[in-house]
Amino acid sequence: MRIFGELQGLYEGDSFRNRLELSQSAVHKPTQAGISGSQNEGADSIIVSGGYEDDEDYGDIIIYTGHGGRDLSSGKQVTDQELVRGNLALAESCKNGLPVRIIRGAHKNSNFAPEEGYRYDGLFRVEDYWKEKGRSDFIVWRFRLRKIEGELKKQSNILQEEQTKYNADNKKTKRIETRVQRIVRDTKLSKKIKERYKYTCQICNTQLETSSGFYAEAAHIKPLGAPHNGPDSEDNLLCLCPNHHVMFDYGGFSILENFDLIGLEGKLTIMNNHKINKEYLKYHLDHFYDEKNR
Amino acid sequence: MRIFGELQGLYEGDSFRNRLELSQSAVHKPTQAGISGSQNEGADSIIVSGGYEDDEDYGDIIIYTGHGGRDLSSGKQVTDQELVRGNLALAESCKNGLPVRIIRGAHKNSNFAPEEGYRYDGLFRVEDYWKEKGRSDFIVWRFRLRKIEGELKKQSNILQEEQTKYNADNKKTKRIETRVQRIVRDTKLSKKIKERYKYTCQICNTQLETSSGFYAEAAHIKPLGAPHNGPDSEDNLLCLCPNHHVMFDYGGFSILENFDLIGLEGKLTIMNNHKINKEYLKYHLDHFYDEKNR
Question: Considering the entire predicted model, what is its pTM?
Fold first, then answer.
């Protein structure tokens, strides 16, 4: 059975001499693969050893490169990576908010690697996944992982704290384990774009009704946040229903420069005075949409 | 113009002698109403003065009772409240993640009230809204507000910190103001229920496709979290697409005991071996669905 999250007796900072030790302790079972997981269950642990030329380690944030397409002796990328096997497992962990154990291996080019052997560095969450041309000009799949601690740990615990607090009067406490699966962020311009479209989805023209009026979400075409760093501007925003927002963010469809959809039938609905920057559409198409899996 | 969030020169803990001072300083403009806002823009500030018999103040969490239906002299509830005016404004703030300025007024029954006059106590977020029978047996609308600080402030700032961190190498920093609009929480059983339904929505039978397979959300019928305290058990879980999850949580529809939908056409799809607790359906219908607005 694949165990996600913490393991009994395992503490952050624990050291392991080699892959065999890691495997036997069940911290990271495969002795060769960097990603432990299956596409149905998700990924439970990864090794960050700087083996991939495209990995980037910022301590609490890791931009991790998926596996495949690499020459084993040189470590160079020699063909495109695909969203299969371990890569698909990490994407599954992303969509379900599963925690991933991070093990760092010794590597001279990383400020965060141990001096020798392997070190368990705690739980991270896969926040986002996308593809891009790596340094060797082949497609690689990338995953932004963020350490679960401080704000994120608290975020997951809000519900627990609250129930405990609220029930203090009644002398009963209930704790329910929760993990965050998806956070919809609003920005300054979000409400403006939603109002302009009267909360109608630009893909399916649905207006979602609630007891207090309509609901829609504002989606950034080129995402906010590193490494995409899309702007919060109207030419980078769409008004979408939650379903099409999820599909758009997770590469279920994209939008061509003539506003035809790809991956879905139809065309983007656009108001006359809403100028969309086609560079951002191209960015989304190149990084999030994956034709191979269709 | 209605200003949401912080005001220049206003600091947490600032005192005001009376409603007129609060109004003139633009902290809370109306001199009578407890809720400042409009149904289109949302609510920008509220006064928590313990005037309503159903208000509950836990410091960082406030269960606030909406307005209407109250006898002004006794403060007793004499008719049902409706989801209109200020109540609708607070619901709008909930759906859009807008911050609400909280002003507490002196009140002998509250541990958190100032000794005299009014005190500005910072920004809160409306996390949830629902209706219930209040102490006087009339329907009241209730709003759970949570202070934006610590985890929540950090949560909103994640994007900013990250961009700053990530770009440190490139000597450029970009900050984009974000606020959290909606958090989807996963629990232990979430994945199980989604797998059982093969990521197919029990309302519309849609399977949302992404570049890495299907996506669905697990919805608790009787919500987790105070004061509902629904359990994380299969008889309280549904597999929904994000659209129907949003509509369900925000009272756009509900489910009758015979599994017919109300507020939407159709019937809930249920697997043979999935027992749903009808008490939880009744709880949702009573607390979240609002027939009057249809």
Answer: 0.85
